[in-house]
Each structure stands twice: as structure tokens, then as C-alpha cells.
Write the C-alpha cells for this entry.
Amino acid sequence: MRRLGNAGWWGAGAAVAVAVCAGCGGPAPAPAPATGTSVSSPPAPSAAPFSAAPSSAAPFSAAPGSVSPRATVGPVPSNPPVPAGSPGQPRGPVDGQSPDGVASAFAAATFTYDTALDRSPYDAQVRSAVYATPAFAAVLKQPLQQGGGAEWNTLAAHHGYTTVALAVNHDDGRPPDQLGSAARAYTVATTGHGDNAWSAPLDSQTMYVFLTRTGTTTPWQVSRVSFSGGS
């Protein structure tokens, strides 16, 4: 998948995260320039995820404009663009006035895909953009120049689909909700299901979600995300 942000927890800078194709395999990238480059996974965080002081190892302490996708970010001339799958939006009601509701819906949509519908995890990433700010949605919809990696290939070989289990991460140090900002963290476990009763765990990692809203009556939207861990 394409990861957003660096490993760790909350920081002071406003970072722009990049697309989050779940299951793309490969390391989580470091900050990417506007034109896109290939990046590799940062080392494991040396501090607790919810450390009070901003740290370069914290997933939410990325510098403005930084990204940390799990695989390639931006165009790679040697590979053709991944074709888009069928259009659609995540099903089920979501309470836009609840940061928990929006954050969990975004996390689930990001990792939920079906090989009968999708051509790669990128399609799930595009569907998750419905919960994002306009700026972040535009980043999520940037075409990928790669396939889904080993996890996606395994799922596709079984003509499979994924289910997602979210567990709220209650680590100390999460910043308190403000009128226009909030943050949530989840342990996301993805399981693949396919032909002949095949079922297998595909991935498990911590996803950190930043949300914003422009007023007390407007819905919450995801402005960036970050990851740590990953199997």
C-alpha cells in the first residue's frame, strides 16, 4: 500500500499525506516532492507513538508536505499506469459530525477491496477519498504507476476480497479534539477471502488519521494519515 506520513505519533507540523493503496507491499516512503519520487520505508520509531514532543520518528510529526507511502509515489517511467477499476462509493451511513465515524470509515474504505471489482488497491484508495478534504482527495486520486504488490497478487490469485477489523488505539499523548481538528488511531487488520473457502490474514498495522473541519456544523474530513508497523 502507499503509506502516508512517518512512523510515530502526533507532531506540530501540518503534513500532506499521499495516497494509501493498501496491500501494495514494499517499504513505507519518506517525504516525497511534488513531482513524485520513489522512497523507501523509514526505520522503526524510536519513541512512543504518542510522545509529547514532536519527533522526526513520529507518524504525525511529518514536516509540511512530507509523505511516507508504503511503496512507489508518483510516476515511474518504466512501468505503465495501473488501470482504474469500476467506479463506486463505500456503502453504509457515516456520521460526518463524528470524527470517530469519519476516521473509521476512511480507514475501512482504504483497506477494503474486491478483485472482482478492483484492478488494484488503488481503487479502494480512490473510494476512500470521499471522506477526505479536497486537497487530500486530489492526492489520493493521483494515478499509481505500480501494481498492488505481493499481498494483492495473493488475493487476486484466489479471486478474493478483503474484510477489515479496526481496533481503536488508546495510546497516551493523543492531542485533544479542537473545534476544527481531531486525530484518531486504529490498529487495522486486513483478512483476505477467496475461492474454495480460502481465508488468510494479509496485513496488520497502526493507522493514524488527522481530521479537520471548517465550522462546528460542517462535516469532519480526513486531511492526512500516517502508518506504523505492518506485517
Observations:
- The first strand starts at residue 161 and ends at 168.
- Residues 121 and 222 are 19 Å apart (CA to CA).
